[in-house]
Structures are given as structure tokens and as C-alpha cells.
């Protein structure tokens, strides 16, 4: 009961603070609703960036990967810090100079409306089909299990799942659809504090359990007993082989933190360039600490349970259940609930923004005023949320989808990132090149990963089995070496798409060179310490890899 009270209390506190913080924002205008009135400051941007990124499938999934592969999976976190530095220095100044509300808006100005529409469609498809239902399902499983909802309400597991899904969905929709970006960002910032505190408690209590009450003793025992788990260099066959850091991994990070509407929308709402850069750099510094929450608990679980769990996805929830004192369960559940809500309402808010600005205003009602655009954006958001709530219970084994989701996202991430990079770094590559680039990029990736790869893997496993190989570890290595890692494939297609676009630009260049206009929406004077702080962050990341090499 104490846990339930603390859960309700913390969740209600976040809602109340968010309500009072957003009362003065004019959410009838596009900027007010979609970008928080372009008034977001560094702390709010940083907190919202971190919470938008975190949800149960990542907290559970990445710790599960660490349970299996150890420290090498920290690349999903540490390289994100470098990507945010690049975004702060190179991409954000261009976004704010152009007064963008959505990333595809730039593509409309640089190429044409059709390119923007294709890109918005790809974004929306990825959000609706993949992200929203998975976030709802995985989050509901975590909350239902933590509070034992079936027993508490005397209902079946299926009914408990439906109740949690609709509870999370409705609350998340209220924030995202009726509160706009500022409500999402403010609630994210408060939850970020809770997540950092709650997330750090798990490894602390885990290390104390290993070290007989001493954190330092726990660290010594953990590292001495499991030296192979503390190597930063991933091996072939693991989720993140070291070579992928220099190919697709960095591209994925640059897309996610620099061009993904769901993420970059927070920085687009900055009151000026300096605040946006400070927010990104603060988030990047905190991201370096991410492995303490998203990787270390998985390694602790491996030692604590002696590698005996049925599946790696149980590593985090089982460790929480084993080491967290009962009186903190409610607070931690509230923090986790905040992380689930954050990811859900952030994706939903971005979907509403893309639809309202890039679809409704552009193609359905070109003469619509701002109030009408916001109104129909909200209607679309409600339909989207309800659809996701119906789809979510149909998803099975969401906890094991972490690595698979990264692979699926390649269908739209690298093609979109390619045309944005070419758009900003060239002046005469035409619109037809962008259309060919984004469509061919998606189709070639689908062909590679979902047609060719299964064929090559199946053939290699058949040969290995026929030659007498039966050991599971050996078969896993055969499977991993049968076809290039999906991150390498992303890098190959990135380069290929750029070459195709540049060739088209050489053969049929646009008549007038593109020039980025300053719309004067916000002040674009950069923060004077951006490059210095960025260099320090990159140096810290490189040092971590060298230390654990």
C-alpha cells in the first residue's frame, strides 16, 4: 500500500507542476502547441531529450544485452553523446536559422514538397507501426508485474495488461494531445530527475548486495569475477562488434539525435540557439553516465544470478525485485511510469506535429489557419493513440525486440539522414535525386535485411549442422558471420545513396543554387563555449573506451 501511495503521489505531483508551468503558453498557435512557444531553456531541453530516449524496452532490453555481452553494448549510450555534440555544432544552427518546426520542412525548401511528404510518411509509419504499440506493451508488462496488478485487482493477466495499456495510453495522450510540447517537456524534466535517482539506486543496491553492504567492495568483486564483461571492444557475434562503431553505429546515432523528429523537436523549441546548444551538451554529458543505469545493472544481474536466468530480458526486472527495498518500489515504479509516458507522449506529439504541419496544412487544407491546424492535429493524435492502444496487446515478447527494433528502424533512418546531409552540404543536387535516394535507400535495405540475409543465414546454418556443429555458441557465431552486420549494411547503403545523389546532381543539377535563409524566428548567436565543451565530452568518451579496452 505504501508503494502504491508513493506511486500515485509522485505521478500526481508531476501532472500538477506541468499544468501550472504550461498555463501561460498560447497553444492555439502552431509554435505554441508544437514547439512550446519557442521558449524552452537548456535544462528543460536536456531533461526532455533524456526522458524521450528512455523507456522500458530500452531499460530492460539494453540491460539484457549487457547481461549477455557486457560493457560493449554501452556504445548505444556513449556514442549518443558524440552525436549530440555534432548536432549542437553543425545541425541545430541550421535548423533554427531556417525557423523549422519539423525536419521535413527543410526538405520542402531544399528539394520539393513531394520529398517532404515522403519523408513525413516514413517518419509516421515508423512511429505508428513500431514505436507506439511497443512502448505501450512493454511498459504495461513492467507496471503490471511490478505491482502484481492481476492479483491486486483479481483479474486475468490479459485483462491486467489491457487496463495498464489503456491507463498509460490515456494519461500519455492527455499530456501530448491536450498539453502540447511544453507539457511533455516539463513533465519529462521532472521525471528525468526521478529516473536518474531511481535508476542509480538499482546498481547501488545491487553492488551492496554483492559486496555485503559495501558498494566499493561490490565493484571489486564484480570486476574480479567477471573481467570478460568489462571490455569496451565488442567481439564478432555480439550485438555491437567494435568495428560497427566506425560504420553504421555512428550514423544511427547521428540520425536519432540530429534528425529524428521525435528527438530534435525539443531543441527546435529552444528560445534561442545558445539555450538549444547548452541543452544538447548538458544532455550529452549526462548520456555518458547512461551505462550506469542501462548497462551496469545487467552485468550485476549476470553475477548475482550466476548467469542462470532463463532469458537475458529478465536481468533487470529480476534484479530490481531482488535488491530494491520494498519501501522504494512505489517511487521506482512511478519513475519507470514517467519514462514510459515520456516515450509514448513524445512520439505521439511528434506524430501530431508531422501530420498537422506536413500533411494537413500542406495537402488537405492549405488555407487553414493555425487554430484549425492544431485542432485537426489533436484529432489525428487521438485516433493514433486509440489505434496504438488496440494494437499494443497483440504484440508478444516486446522485451526481446530491442536489437530487432534498431534493425527495423534502418528502413527509414539512413535514407532520411542521407538526403538531409546531402541537402545541407550541397547546393545544386536536385529534388529528383532526393526522391530516388530515400526510396532506393529504403528498398535496398529491405532487400538486404529481409530477403537476402535470411537466405544466407539459413544456408550457413544448414552447412554447419550438416558438418556436425551442434553447440549453440558455435551456431550463433556461424549465424553472425554468414551476413554483414546490419550496422555495416547501413553504412554501405549510406555511402551508395550519397554517390547516387551526387551523380544525379552532376548530370542534372538544379538551376539555382540553394541558399539557407534566416527567418529570424529566434536569435542564432551560438553559445561561445559550445566547441570547447563539445571537445571535452568527445575526449571523455574516447578515454572511457581506452580505459576499458
UniProtKB/TrEMBL annotation:
Cellular component terms (Gene Ontology): plasma membrane
Membrane topology field: Multi-pass membrane protein
Protein name as catalogued: Solute:Na+ symporter, SSS family
InterPro entries named in the record: Na/Glc_symporter_sf, Na/solute_symporter
Family per similarity comment: Belongs to the sodium:solute symporter (SSF) (TC 2.A.21) family.
GO MF terms, alphabetically ordered: D-glucose:sodium symporter activity
Species this chain originates from: Flaviramulus basaltis
Taxonomic placement: Bacteria, Pseudomonadati, Bacteroidota, Flavobacteriia, Flavobacteriales
One Pfam family, short name: SSF
CDD domains tied to this protein: SLC5sbd_YidK
Residues passing through the membrane, by range: 6-22, 34-54, 74-96, 117-140, 160-178, 190-210, 240-259, 280-305, 327-355, 376-396, 408-425, 432-452, 485-504, 529-548
Keywords: Membrane, Transmembrane, Transmembrane helix
Subcellular location: Membrane
Amino acid at each position: 500500500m505504501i508503494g502504491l501511495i508513493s506511486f500515485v503521489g509522485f505521478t500526481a505531483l508531476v501532472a500538477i507542476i506541468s499544468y501550472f508551468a504550461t498555463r501561460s503558453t498560447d497553444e492555439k498557435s502552431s509554435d505554441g502547441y508544437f514547439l512550446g512557444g519557442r521558449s524552452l531553456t537548456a535544462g528543460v531541453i536536456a531533461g526532455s531529450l533524456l526522458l524521450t530516449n528512455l523507456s522500458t524496452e530500452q531499460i530492460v532490453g539494453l540491460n539484457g544485452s549487457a547481461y549477455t555481452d557486457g560493457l560493449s553494448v554501452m556504445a548505444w549510450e556513449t556514442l549518443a553523446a558524440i552525436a549530440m555534440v555534432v548536432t549542437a555544432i553543425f545541425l541545430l544552427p541550421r535548423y533554427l536559422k531556417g525557423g523549422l518546426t519539423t525536419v521535413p520542412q527543410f526538405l520542402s525548401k531544399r528539394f520539393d514538397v513531394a520529398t517532404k511528404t515522403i519523408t513525413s510518411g516514413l517518419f509516421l509509419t515508423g512511429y505508428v507501426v513500431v514505436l507506439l504499440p511497443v512502448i505501450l506493451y512493454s511498459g504495461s508488462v513492467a507496471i503490471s508485474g511490478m505491482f502484481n496488478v492481476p492479483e491486486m485487482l483479481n483479474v486475468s493477466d490479459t485483462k491486467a495488461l489491457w487496463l495498464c495499456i489503456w491507463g498509460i495510453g490515456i494519461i500519455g495522450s492527455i499530456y501530448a494531445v491536450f498539453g502540447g510540447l511544453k507539457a511533455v517537456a516539463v513533465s519529462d524534466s521532472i521525471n528525468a530527475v526521478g529516473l536518474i535517482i531511481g535508476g542509480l539506486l538499482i546498481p547501488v543496491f545491487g553492488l551492496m548486495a554483492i559486496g555485503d553492504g559495501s558498494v566499493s567492495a561490490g565493484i571489486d568483486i564484480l570486476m574480479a569475477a567477471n573481467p570478460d564483461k568489462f571490455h569496451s571492444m565488442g567481439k564478432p557475434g555480439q550485438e555491437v562488434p567494435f568495428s560497427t562503431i566506425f560504420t553504421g553505429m555512428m550514423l544511427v546515432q547521428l540520425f536519432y539525435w540530429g534528425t529524428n523528429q521525435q528527438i530534435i523537436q525539443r531543441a527546435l523549441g529552444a528560445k534561442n540557439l545558445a539555450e538549444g546548444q547548452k541543452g544538447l551538451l548538458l544532455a550529452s554529458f549526462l548520456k555518458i553516465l547512461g551505462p550506469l543505469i542501462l548497462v551496469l545493472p545487467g552485468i550485476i544481474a549476470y553475477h548475482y544470478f550466476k548467469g542462470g536466468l532463463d532469458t537475458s530480458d529478465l536481468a533487470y526486472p529480476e534484479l530490481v525485485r531482488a535488491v530494491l527495498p520494498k519501501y522504494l518500489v512505489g517511487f521506482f515504479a512511478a519513475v519507470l511510469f514517467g519514462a514510459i509516458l515520456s516515450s509514448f507522449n513524445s512520439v505521439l506529439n511528434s506524430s501530431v506535429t508531422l501530420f498537422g504541419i506536413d500533411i494537413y496544412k500542406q495537402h488537405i487544407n492549405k488555407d487553414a489557419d493555425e487554430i484549425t491546424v492544431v485542432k485537426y492535429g489533436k484529432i489525428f493524435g487521438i485516433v493514433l493513440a486509440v489505434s496504438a492502444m488496440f494494437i499494443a496487446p497483440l504484440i508478444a515478447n516486446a522485451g526481446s525486440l530491442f536489437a530487432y527494433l534498431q534493425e527495423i528502424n534502418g528502413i527509414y533512418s539512413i535514407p532520411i539522414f542521407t538526403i538531409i546531409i546531402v541537402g545541407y552540404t550541397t547546393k545544386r543536387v536536385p529534388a529528383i535525386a532526393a526522391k530516388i535516394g530515400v526510396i532506393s535507400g529504403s528498398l535496398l535495405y529491405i532487400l538486404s535485411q529481409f530477403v537476402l540475409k535470411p537466405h544466407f543465414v539459413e544456408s550457413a546454418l544448414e552447412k554447419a549442422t550438416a558438418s556436425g556443429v551442434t553447440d549453440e555458441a558455435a551456431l550463433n557465431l556461424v549465424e553472425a558471420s554468414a551476413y554483414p552486420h546490419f550496422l555495416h549494411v547501413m553504412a554501405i547503403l549510406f555511402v551508395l545513396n550519397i554517390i547516387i545523389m551526387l551523380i544525379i546532381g552532376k548530370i542534372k543539377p538544379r538551376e539555382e543554387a540553394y541558399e539557407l535563409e534566416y527567418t529570424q524566428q529566434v536569435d542564432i548567436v551560438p553559445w561561445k563555449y559550445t566547441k570547447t565543451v563539445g571537445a571535452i565530452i568527445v575526449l571523455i568518451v574516447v578515454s572511457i573506451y581506452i580505459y576499458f579496452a
